[in-house]
Amino acid sequence: MNLVQLRKDAKTIFDTGVKAVNPVNAIMQHLKRQNDKLKAGDQMYDLSIYDGVYVIGAGKASAAMAQPLEKLLSDRMKTGVVQVKYGHSVPLNKVHILEAGHPVPDEAGIHGARQIIELVKNTGKKDLVFFLISGGGSALLPSPAKGLTMEDKQMTTKILLESGATIHEINALRKHISKVKGGRLAQLAYPSTLISLILSDVIGDNLDSIASGPTVPDNSTFDDCLYVLDKYSIRNKIPVSVFKHLEKGARGEIDETPKADDPAFQRTQNLIIGSNIVAVKAAKKKADELGYNSLIISTFIEGETKEVAKVHAAIAKEILKTDLPVPKPACVISGGETTVTIQGKGLGGRNQEFALAASIEIQGLKDVAVLSGGTDGTDGPTEAAGAIADGSTVQRAKSLGLDPGYYLRENDSYHFFQALNDLLITGPTFTNVMDLRLLMVA
Question: Per CATH, is 3-14+277-441 categorized as 3.30.930.10?
Fold first, then answer.
């Protein structure tokens, strides 16, 4: 088992994990129909009592999720609107697809959100509404709260992303400066029956954090938002209008997001149809089939990317020396989603930065490779899903005149791996359950 085979196997294992959370398979596993009876998870619905079925959605995979839904409910479905990231459209018949900006919302996103809101507000008690949620749903359903602008939301999102705030913290603020997030979409849909089908891109699959929980009771408060601003010392960086809005909310001058006792949630089902653990388990199974001793260390990995990379590199060194925590040949698998505190002016994403930081830590080690990729096929503002590195990466880079330390400081992992031809390019996968990292030791 040489390094070439190790890298090839890593790609195969990653692809297998991604295929396991394909939205078509996920929906067909969780929705079963027999005549007018529809089973969603453990709940049963009688389609004959509804005047019509409607579909709305937001997220990179929402259009792909709508495909099997159209086939399953073609005779009942009236129409629908879903909003996806640019380049993530697929052929649909009754559901209209809109494309918009991600991870920073844009004007197209606001226009699309208006159409989604208008559709759902016009449904009634005898209608059944499906809401398709996947990664990117927060940015792809932008509807600023009264008194706020698109620019306010864009600047706030940008500052939060660059501060190193966790996805949970970012979503808490997104909910409180939005008309639809934090359970407010469920309020808009009420009294129609609402089924949310969710591809989770959040650690722990917390429903109120996935796409900022538009159909879920919100546990966060305006006070929590002010705490996040202080925690990352960005109170004076965000737009004044946003800060004043949050202060008004904390004083009780603006309604809080809906909590669990709101009647809208009595007519709402939230069903997770795919998550990181599903992809990770599928990757483990494939690694076993390929002859590796595999180990899942966690799907709850978060924190600063460079530090997480150091820990994974340390595990590789331990395996080489002691065959612990798993003997060679080894495939150590982790999931979750790390964060990057941006200090440079380069191009990249958390997965590419992970691979770059890890390459420095494992330089010179024979028969060791790391792969880190986003299951959605994109990493940061790039077309790459991530990157692959090994013990020879640093040496190969230096032979090309590239200084790995410089590229890491500049957060320019994309151009580093582009020069080495080691970017992980998958194209849009039409799913999103966070990241998948593989540590391979021959």
Answer: no
Work out the average pLDDT over 250-256. Answer: 95
- CA–chain centroid gap for 274, Å, is 11
Of all residues in the chain, what percent are helix, strand and coil, respectively (each to 5)? 40, 20, 35
pLDDT digits (tens, 9 = 90+) for 355-393: 999 999 999 999 999 999 999 999 998 999 999 999 999
For 24, the token pair is 């078509």
Contact predicate 9/275, CB 8 Å: no
HSE-CB for 72 with a 13 A CA cutoff: 24
Q: Which of 182, 181, 109 is nearest to 151 (CA)?
A: 109
Q: Which CATH number applies to 23-143+178-220+257-274: 3.40.50.620, 3.40.630.30, 3.40.640.10, 3.40.50.10180? A: 3.40.50.10180
Question: Given phi > 0 = left and psi -120 to 50 = alpha, else beta, which region is 346?
Answer: beta
Whether the bond into 191 is cis, omega within 30 of 0: yes
The dihedral sign for the CA sequence 63, 64, 69, 74: positive
| Calpha distance 396→388 (Å, rounded) | 13
Say what percent of the chain tops pLDDT 90.
88
In 260-407, at which residue ranges do the beta strands (DSSP E only) sit? 268-274, 293-301, 330-336, 368-374, 386-390
**Distance separating alpha carbons of residues 73 and 125, to the nearest angstrom:** 19
pTM for this prediction: 0.84
Residue 222, both tokens: 């305006």
